[in-house]
Description:
The complex is a heterodimer.
Chain A: E1 3-14, E2 17-28, E3 32-36, H1 43-51, E4 58-63, E5 66-67, H2 73-79, E6 81-83, H3 96-103, H4 112-117, H5 120-139, H6 155-167, E7 173-177, H7 185-202, E8 205-209, H8 213-219, E9 222-227, E10 230-235, H9 237-241, H10 244-251, H11 271-274
Parallel strand pairs in A: 3-8, 3-9, 6-7, 7-8
Antiparallel strand pairs in A: 1-2, 1-4, 4-5, 9-10
Chain B: H1 3-35, H2 42-63, H3 77-104, H4 113-134, E1 139-140, H5 152-156, H6 167-189, H7 191-201, H8 203-208, H9 213-239, E2 241-242, H10 246-261, H11 266-286, H12 289-306
Antiparallel strand pairs in B: 1-2
Helix pairs in contact in B: 1-6, 1-9, 1-10, 1-11, 2-3, 2-4, 2-9, 2-10, 3-9, 6-7, 6-9, 7-9, 10-11, 10-12, 11-12
Amino acid sequence: MASILETRGLSKRFGGLLxxxxxxxxxxxxxxxxxxxxxxxxxxxxFNMVAGLYTPSAGEIAFRGRRLNxxxxxxxxxxxxxxxxxxxxLFSNMSALDNVLVGMHSRLKASTLGAVLRTPSVxxxxxxxxxxxxxxxxxxxxxxxxxxxxxxxPYGDQRRLEIARALATQPALLLLDEPTAGMNPQETNAxxxxxxxxxxxxxxxxxxxxxxxxxxMGISDRVxxxxxxxxxAEGTPHEIQRHPAVIEAYLGRGASVAPAPAADGAGRxxxxxxxxx
Amino acid sequence: MSWxxxxxxxxxxxxANGAIIALVALGYTLVYGxxxxxxxAHGDVFMLGTMISLTIVTWVPSLMGLxxxxxxxxxxxxxxxxxxxxxxxxxxxxxxMAIERLAYRPLRRAPRLAxxxxxxxxxxxLVNIGLHWKGASPVDFPNMHPSVSxxxxxxxxxxxxxxxxxxxxLLVMLLAVPLMLALNLFVTRTxxxxxxxxxxxxxxxxxxxxxNINQTIALTFLLGGALAGAAGLISGMYNNSAWFFQGFRxxxxxFTAAVLGGIGNIYGAFMGGLLIGVVAAxxxxxxxxxxxxxxxxxxxxxxxxxxxxxxxGESTPERA
Lengths: 277, 320
């Protein structure tokens, strides 16, 4: 399969802090890839570089062969990458429908003059956009909530609305930043199903950051683990679950029953310093 | 004059000045809504709007070899008005956009105080342009046609009343109201208007929706400038004067109106403008015009103390 997103030696430095360090990473078309790691591992920084909100300090990002370094966020959206945010960032003073319509911004052509004069082509385009927006709201499980203000929606529905809004940009690659954060088990299961349907029914490639291990292990084709900005492991959920470096990163050295990996290079040099963790 | 006739008269005067204030206030509120900057130069853009329209209104008749606009053939007057309006709106729109590009955009990531000081600097520059251009004293802004001073009730309709309502009063409304409706339509109905509202609420999320942030901010300044330009013409026409320092008072009144209505809120700026206009007219009549500014700013202080988010305002959500 062809790769949709590829990074080579990707790094981001904030002053003295190396938030992401020389990460090589690939996502296959139509796969579900997860990025995990302890808090502060650089996951969201990595996302922000892919989405164009941060410019990489070094290295390359390519989307379907096109270099993304220095491309503006709105242009990246037009190329076909959409995202949701870790802390929900809806347009809270707009209706659910308007939020989705804003998502369609880059796909609509109506000029301002046309919109004010309401020429037939604009009216037709607007009607199609609304129909499409209503469909998207139904797809994510928010039927009949069109006119509700985003900020008045329950928390779980806001997460769904954020996904609908991202879908409105017609992405090929969807970045989900902790989509199940703060959800109860039922909501989490429903959202996991939704993510599966995104790939099955809309042919999307999904790249997610997630802390719920059950979600990650349940839906991912590939899992990548970051710790202190460094990629420490990569593989199928099955491989990751028993990877010693991963267990160490999450629980500290000594928690792993397996012997320390010799080949990985990410093992900590001073076990004594880790002992009090 | 009976008390109710006085009251109606105050309302009429207040409403006309209020409409002008509201147009300027919209510029403050649009810009604040989108980049959280109090654009202190905005009042002076409004002043230059009056200067631009004054120039057109005196220059066009001189091209025709006439001394003043009122000597022009009656049928050409609406065209002159339209040309002056467009020149002022386009001039101020481009000026405001250039100010954003040169003075504010380079400071977009700087601490919030930096663009504010930059705005005050731009204000000084514009005031001095006005001073250099039209001199230090207030300049007469000629009536374009004798009929604008006609009283509609007595002279046109033949009704005997003590209330003055001139053609000029009517004209203020005929110009200001459609502009405000058009702005409202633009912001709520068009794709770019939606993009503006989205950018105001969350800039990064809006960028992720494919919205070009720089363009959207430039568009906001363009709209604010155009409205200030229209207000400049209307003010010159209504008050028959143009003065390089009028932007200071007008700007502060409009700023107060925007805060009163809830800064960032378009309907709020509109209502706040009308309310300030009426309060100012009441104070002019009941107290003394010299007290009016004190009354208006006293009101601003009371709002800030008791309802800091304004009449229609709401607290801005914390950004993460």
